[in-house]
Amino acid sequence: MNKKEETITPPGDDLSIRCPKLGHQIFFSYCLHENNKLPCFKILDCWHTYFQAEKYLKDTLTQSDWEAAFETPRKPKILRVCHNIIVTY
């Protein structure tokens, strides 16, 4: 069994990885709450090589939060961008 298979504890803020959405280094703690207090939709793709991200999230999220984060279809990017512009200004 390799180290990743044994580890279900998420990394602390001493480890950062490049975020494909934002284009810079980011900590797991940011990804965990990036989506309106829900995990980023890419969190499983980005962090699975460092620890058992899916198991950790299934153990810590409620069923409704899991569904909202990972099973609900996302709005098209243009709608998300427009929403962010309206909310910001």
Distance between the termini: 51 Å
Give helix and strand order, one letter per element, not per position: HEEHHHHH
Mean pLDDT: 90
What is the helix content? 40-55%
Characterization of the model:
This protein is mostly helical and 89 residues long. Helix content is 47%, strand content 7%. Strands 1-2 form a two-stranded antiparallel sheet. A hairpin with a 6-residue loop joins strand 1 and strand 2. The protein is globular and about 45 Å long. The protein starts with a helix and ends with a helix. The model has no long low-confidence stretch (mean pLDDT 90).
Short summary:
It contains 6 helices and 2 strands, in the order αββααααα. The chain has helices spanning 3-6, 28-31, 43-47, 53-60, 63-71, 77-88, and strands spanning 16-18, 25-27.
Top keywords for this entry?
89 residues, mainly alpha, two-stranded antiparallel sheet, 2 strands, 7% strand, globular
What's the arrangement of secondary structure elements?
Blueprint: H1 3-6, E1 16-18, E2 25-27, H2 28-31, H3 43-47, H4 53-60, H5 63-71, H6 77-88
Antiparallel strand pairs: 1-2
